[in-house]
UniProtKB/TrEMBL annotation:
GO terms for biological process: coenzyme A biosynthetic process; pantothenate catabolic process. Its EC number is 4.1.1.36, 6.3.2.5. The gene is coaBC. This is Coenzyme A biosynthesis bifunctional protein CoaBC. HAMAP family: CoaBC. Pathway: Cofactor biosynthesis; coenzyme A biosynthesis; CoA from (R)-pantothenate: step 3/5; Cofactor biosynthesis; coenzyme A biosynthesis; CoA from (R)-pantothenate: step 2/5. Pfam families: DFP (PF04127), Flavoprotein (PF02441). Catalyzes two sequential steps in the biosynthesis of coenzyme A. In the first step cysteine is conjugated to 4'-phosphopantothenate to form 4-phosphopantothenoylcysteine. In the second step the latter compound is decarboxylated to form 4'-phosphopantotheine. Binds 1 FMN per subunit. The keyword Glycoprotein does not apply. One of its GO terms (cellular component) is phosphopantothenoylcysteine decarboxylase complex. InterPro entries: CoaB-like_sf, CoaBC, DNA/pantothenate-metab_flavo_C, Flavin_trans-like, Flavoprotein. Its cofactor is FMN; Mg(2+).
Length: 415
């Protein structure tokens, strides 16, 4: 991606030190980053930290370098503004359009996407004043992330934690690639996403797994949540991914556990996205004790495999049987390779028909493709016969295109 101009606004919350990581990640991605803190922010982290990390001077007021008119120039020339952390006070000042420091003046002059990552105590976040300020900012097109839940300052826990720096910079990069990627258009939609690979126990120590990293499913859950959906993520084994902020995450191990979790949550859901790599087979008789290597004369052990339930097909069947009255869209994923019978798309079309889902995301797998990597490409097949290419891009960009297709499907009346 070409070098873009990013402004990182930092407000005065306890999480201000985490802004240093956001700045670091964005500069390492090759962008020019300028930090604009509030006066309060500099009581938490010194200007020297931000100046050294960004390579630019740091000011809080509008009366420094006046000849360069920074109170308008910084916002006008930005490609993206990220405010992390956004305090309750900063959100309030932005919502009423104040311009009493350099950051708020920048927010008024910026015409690029603006991403706020709020962080505050749960009481402040849930206060109607803050909710209304957030709603106002979203109505005007700003992207206000859902805060993460967890440990806050002191012993308190609840929603209000700053999302992880990695999550903020991932969404920032998405907005640089696609300025219109995060409309707030899925409020009230309940989404169930599965991601990652399952692990089928052989004995208490060993398992049969697969190479799914969970990155694509996590990216779909993250984009859905930032577009306002109420997202539950059922996560199998993943490559140590950060749980997306504002998403309810349930961790599972085996295909049977994943199936049970889907059965539990699907009746509430309007959308099911089956991005998990669910094992087709499992050991028929997992040993309760570790299988011992034993002497060579005892020969090699064999593992008998039996078929797992097909979770996607099961969900489609349950909907047909009237057990999922709220379900409007069922989305499958297919990791395919071509063979003597046909290419990737040939097999994918057959799978879409066989499974009966509404949309199928298709990835060609093979060496260094689809699994464990950060980029992806493929096709999006729809039950109505539409086939759209998903151009090569980060898994977050691909996720945003998949979510666009789901949103369009829901908008058109769904399944
Ligand atoms: C130790 C400490 C931690 C604070 N943490 C937060 C916080 O996480 N979120 C928040 O909204 N305000 C927090 N505040 C209150 C803000 O610093 C205060 O509202 C300030 O006016 C914010 O100014 P700013 O929005 O211009 O940066 C904290 C204050 C103190 C003293």
């Amino acid at each position: 991606m070409e070098r873009k101009r990013i402004i990182v606004g930092v407000a005065g919350g306890i999480a201000a030190y985490k802004a240093a990581s956001v700045v670091r990640q964005l500069t390492e991605a090759g962008h020019s980053v300028r930090v604009v803190p509030t006066e309060s922010a500099l009581r938490f982290v010194g200007a020297a930290t931000f100046e050294a990390l960004s390579g630019h001077p740091v000011h809080t007021g509008v009366f420094e370098d006046v000849h360069e008119v920074p109170h308008v120039r910084i916002g006008q020339t930005a490609d993206l503004v990220v405010v992390a952390p956004a305090t309750a006070d900063l959100l309030a000042r932005a919502a009423v359009g104040r311009a009493d420091d350099l950051l708020t003046a920048t927010l008024l002059t910026a015409r690029c996407p603006v991403l706020y990552a709020p962080a505050m105590h749960t009481e402040m976040w849930l206060h109607p004043a803050t909710s209304e300020n957030v709603a106002t900012l979203r109505k005007r097109g700003a992207i206000v992330m859902e805060p993460a839940s967890g440990r806050l300052t002191g012993a308190d826990t609840g929603p209000g934690r700053l999302p992880e720096a990695e999550e903020i910079s991932t969404l920032a990069q998405l907005l640089l690639a696609r300025a219109d990627a995060l409309p707030y258009d899925l409020a009230g939609v309940k989404v169930l996403v599965t991601a990652g690979g399952t692990r089928e126990p052989i004995d208490p120590v060993r398992f049969i797994g697969n190479r799914s990293s969970g990155k694509q499913g996590y990216a779909v859950a993250r984009v859905m949540a930032q577009r306002g959906a109420d997202v539950t993520l059922i996560a199998g084994n993943t490559a140590g991914l950060v749980d997306p902020a504002g998403v309810h995450v349930a961790h599972v191990g085996s295909a049977a556990q994943l199936r049970d979790a889907v059965s539990k949550h699907a009746p509430d859901a309007n959308v099911l996205v089956m991005a998990a790599a669910v094992a087709d087979f499992r050991p028929a008789n997992p040993a309760t004790n570790k299988i011992k290597k034993g002497p060579t004369e005892e020969g090699d052990p064999t593992i008998e495999l039996i078929r797992n339930d097909d979770v996607l097909a099961g969900a489609v069947r349950a909907r047909t049987d009237g057990q999922l009255p709220n379900m409007q869209a069922i989305v499958g994923f297919a990791a395919e390779t071509g063979d003597a019978n046909g290419d990737v798309l040939f097999h994918a079309r057959a799978k879409l028909k066989r499974k009966g889902c509404d949309l199928l995301v298709v990835n060609a797998v093979g060496e260094n493709r689809a699994f464990e990597v950060d980029h992806n490409d493929g096709w999006l097949l729809s039950a109505d016969g539409t086939e759209t290419a998903l151009e090569h891009g980060s898994k977050t960009v691909i996720a945003s295109r998949i979510v666009d297709a789901i949103a369009a499907f829901l908008h058109s009346g769904g399944g």
